[in-house]
C-alpha cells in the first residue's frame, strides 16, 4: 500500500500552501509490494507481450484476448476491484505502476486500459450489487471483455450532447436503445459495452449492453494513424433490447459515471505517457551511442545532448507528478469505507484538477519525447523498420482521448474557480494578499539554504499565478469562462507550478545525486520563463497603457529567478544518460 503521508491535502491546494516532502509520494516511496508488481509487469511485457507485438499490430485479436486473459491470471485486471468480486483491491499507486509498465507496447496497453479501467470501473463504483456479482469476477479473468462507449459523431468533447436514445419497451421489460457510438476501443472482441444514452431523449444515463443482445452490432475497423494493434469500431444500436435493470448508477446521473471514470482514466493516461516516453528515450540513447557521424558517436554532440537531457528532465518531472497524485488519492481513500461508493468517488474527485494536469502534461511530454526520438534517429526515424516511427504515430491520440487537452486546460481553471466560489479553496483571499505584497515597500523574505533558490522560484510562481489570475477575474468577473485563451494561459501556469513543486519535493526527500539537482534546476529554469510568458499574455488581455505597464512591473517584481547555465546542466544530464545507456534517474 502507499506509504502514509502526514496531511490530507485538498485538491489544488498546492497553489496556496507550502508543500513538504512528507506530503508528496514519489517512486522512491514504493513499497516491496509495489516493486514486486512493477517487476512482474515488466517481466510479463518483456517475455510475453513484446514477442507478440507484430501479431498485435496486424490485428490478430485472438493474441490480444489471450494476453488479456494472461493479465487476469497475473491479477493485473482486478487491481482496483474488491477481493470479494475476484479482484486484488490494491491502491492507485499500483494501478499507475501497471499502466506505466504496460505502455511499452502502446496498442496492447490501450486494449488493457479499455477493459480493466474505463470498461470495468463503472461497475466497481456505480454498479448494483447484482451487477458486481455477475460481471466483476468474469472481468477480472477476461472471461468477458469490456469496452466503454461514450463518444458519438456529434458529441466528442461535449459528451452530454449525445443523441443515442433509450426508451422503455411497451411491455416495460426492456430498454430499446438506438444510436451509434464512435471510437470504441476493444469493439472487435468486447463481450459488453458500458454505454451512455439519453433516457427519453433528456436523461443522460449509463447502461450495460452485452454484444449478444438483439439489435447490437459493430461497424468496420477504423483505419487509424496509430495504435493499429488496438481495435476501434463503431457500436451500432438498432432497437437494441437491454434489460431494464442494466442501468449503471441512477437514471439521469450518467454524467457522474462518465466524468468520475474519466478522472481515473486521465491519471492513468499520465502514467502510460511516462512509460511510453521512457521507452522512446531509451531507444534514442542507444541509437545515439551507436550512430557515428563525422568520426564519433552522435551522442557526443551538443545538439543531441540537449535533446536527450530535455527528454529525460520532462520525463522525471512527469513521473513524480503521476505518483504524487496517486499518493494523494490513496491517502484520501484510507479513511473511506471500501463499500461506501459515494465516499470513494468523493475522495477521487477531490483530485480531479491534478488528474487533468497529468493528462495534459503527460501527453505533451510524450509527444515531445517521441518527436525528438525520431529526430535523433534522423531519416531512419521516419522508417517503419525502426520502432520510433510507431511510437510517433501511437502517441498523437493521447492529446485527444480522455477529453482533449484543450478541454482539460479549460477544466483546470474552471474547477479552481468553482472551488474558490464555494470556499473549498481560499484562492480569493490568497490573491488579495499577493496584491498587497506587490504594492508594499518590500517583499517578504524567501527561503534560503539548500534548494533555497528552487523553493523561492516555486513561491514566486504561485504568487505570479494568483496575481495574474486575480487581475483576470477582476476584469472579466463571471464572463471569464468565455475567455478561453486567458483560461488556457492560467492553466499552463498551474501545470508548471505543480510540476516545479513536485520536482523539488521529490528532490528533497530522495537520496538525490548531483544529476537529480541538475534535472530539477534545468526544468525550473525553463518553467519560470513559461510562467512569465503566460503571465504577460494574461495581463495584456486585461489591461493596456499605464495600467498594463504597472501590472507588468508587479509581475517582474514577483518573478526574480536568475537564469542558470542550462547548456552545462544539460550536458551533465546527457552524459549521465549515455554512461548508463538508458534513462537512469
Provide an overview of this structure.
There is one protein chain. With 585 residues, the chain is α+β, with helices and mostly antiparallel strands. The protein has four domains: 13-145, Orthogonal Bundle (Butyryl-Coa Dehydrogenase, subunit A, domain 1), CATH 1.10.540; 147-248, Beta Barrel (Butyryl-CoA Dehydrogenase, subunit A, domain 2), CATH 2.40.110; 254-321 and 352-400, Butyryl-CoA Dehydrogenase, subunit A, domain 3 (Up-down Bundle), CATH 1.20.140; 407-580, Butyryl-CoA Dehydrogenase, subunit A, domain 3 (Up-down Bundle). It has helices at 32-49, 53-57, 61-74, 92-102, 106-116, 121-126, 129-141, 254-290, 302-333, 341-349, 352-377, 387-395, 405-421, 427-439, 452-476, 484-509, 514-542, 545-558, 566-580, and strands at 146-149, 165-168, 174-185, 192-199, 203-210, 216-218, 232-243, 247-248, 292-293, 296-297. The strands form two sheets. Strands 1, 2, 3, 4, 5, 6, 7 and 8 form an eight-stranded mixed sheet that branches. It has a two-stranded antiparallel ribbon with strand order 9-10. Mean pLDDT is 94; it is low at 1-6.
Amino acid at each position: 500500500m502507499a506509504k502514509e503521508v502526514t496531511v490530507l491535502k485538498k485538491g489544488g491546494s498546492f497553489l496556496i500552501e507550502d508543500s513538504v516532502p512528507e506530503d508528496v509520494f514519489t517512486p522512491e516511496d514504493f513499497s516491496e509490494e509495489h516493486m514486486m508488481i512493477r517487476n512482474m509487469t515488466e517481466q510479463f511485457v518483456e517475455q510475453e507481450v513484446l514477442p507478440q507485438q507484430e501479431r498485435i499490430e496486424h490485428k490478430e485479436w485472438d493474441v490480444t484476448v489471450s494476453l488479456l486473459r494472461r493479465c487476469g491470471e497475473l491479477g493485473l485486471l482486478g487491481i482496483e476491484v474488491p477481493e470479494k468480486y475476484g479482484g486484488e483491491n490494491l491502491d492507485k499507486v499500483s494501478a499507475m505502476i501497471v499502466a506505466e509498465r504496460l505502455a511499452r507496447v502502446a496498442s496492447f496497453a490501450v486494449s488493457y486500459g479499455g477493459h480493466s479501467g474505463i470498461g470495468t470501473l463503472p461497475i466497481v463504483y456505480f454498479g448494483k450489487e447484482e451487477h458486481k456479482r455477475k460481471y466483476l469476477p468474469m472481468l477480472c479473468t477476461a472471461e468477458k471483455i469490456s469496452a466503454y462507449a461514450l463518444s458519438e459523431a456529434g458529441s466528442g468533447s461535449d459528451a452530454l450532447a449525445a443523441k443515442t436514445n433509450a426508451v422503455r419497451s411497451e411491455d416495460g421489460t426492456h430498454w430499446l436503445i438506438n444510436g451509434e457510438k464512435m471510437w470504441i476501443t476493444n469493439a472487435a472482441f468486447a463481450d459488453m459495452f458500458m454505454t451512455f444514452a439519453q433516457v427519453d431523449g433528456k436523461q443522460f444515463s449509463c447502461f450495460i449492453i452485452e454484444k449478444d443482445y438483439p439489435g447490437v452490432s459493430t461497424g468496420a475497423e477504423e483505419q487509424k494513424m496509430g495504435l493499429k494493434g488496438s481495435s476501434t469500431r463503431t457500436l451500432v444500436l438498432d432497437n437494441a433490447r437491454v434489460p431494464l435493470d442494466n442501468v449503471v448508477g441512477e437514471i439521469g446521473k450518467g454524467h457522474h459515471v462518465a466524468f468520475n471514470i474519466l478522472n481515473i482514466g486521465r491519471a492513468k493516461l499520465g502514467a502510460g505517457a511516462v512509460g511510453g516516453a521512457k521507452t522512446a528515450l531509451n531507444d534514442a540513447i542507444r541509437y545515439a551511442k551507436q550512430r557515428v557521424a563525422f568520426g564519433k558517436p552522435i551522442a557526443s554532440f551538443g545538439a543531441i545532448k540537449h535533446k536527450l537531457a530535455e527528454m529525460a528532465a520532462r520525463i522525471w518531472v512527469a513521473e513524480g507528478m503521476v505518483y504524487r497524485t496517486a499518493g494523494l488519492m490513496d491517502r484520501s481513500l484510507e479513511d473511506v469505507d471500501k463499500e461506501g461508493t459515494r465516499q470513494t468517488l468523493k475522495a477521487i474527485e477531490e483530485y480531479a484538477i491534478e488528474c487533468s494536469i497529468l493528462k495534459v502534461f503527460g501527453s505533451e511530454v510524450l509527444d515531445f519525447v517521441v518527436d525528438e526520438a525520431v529526430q535523433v534517429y534522423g531519416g531512419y526515424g521516419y522508417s517503419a523498420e525502426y520502432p520510433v516511427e510507431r511510437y510517433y504515430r501511437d502517441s498523437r491520440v493521447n492529446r485527444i482521448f480522455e477529453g482533449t487537452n484543450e478541454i482539460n486546460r479549460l477544466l483546470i481553471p474552471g474547477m479552481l474557480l468553482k472551488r474558490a466560489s464555494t470556499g473549498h479553496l481560499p484562492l480569493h483571499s490568497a490573491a488579495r494578499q499577493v496584491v498587497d505584497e506587490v504594492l508594499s515597500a518590500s517583499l517578504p523574505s524567501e527561503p534560503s539554504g539548500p534548494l533555497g533558490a528552487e523553493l523561492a522560484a516555486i513561491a514566486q510562481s504561485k504568487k505570479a499565478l494568483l496575481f495574474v489570475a486575480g487581475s483576470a477575474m477582476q476584469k472579466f468577473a463571471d464572463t471569464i469562462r468565455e475567455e478561453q485563451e486567458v483560461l488556457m494561459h492560467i492553466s499552463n501556469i498551474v501545470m508548471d507550478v505543480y510540476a516545479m513543486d513536485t520536482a523539488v519535493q521529490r528532490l528533497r526527500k530522495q537520496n538525490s545525486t548531483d544529476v537529480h539537482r541538475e534535472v530539477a534546476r534545468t526544468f525550473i529554469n525553463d518553467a519560470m520563463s513559461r510562467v512569465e510568458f503566460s503571465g504577460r499574455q494574461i495581463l495584456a488581455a486585461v489591461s493596456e497603457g499605464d495600467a498594463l505597464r504597472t501590472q507588468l512591473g508587479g509581475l517582474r517584481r514577483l518573478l526574480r529567478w536568475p537564469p542558470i547555465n542550462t547548456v552545462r546542466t544539460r550536458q551533465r544530464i546527457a552524459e549521465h544518460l549515455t554512461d548508463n545507456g538508458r534513462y537512469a534517474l
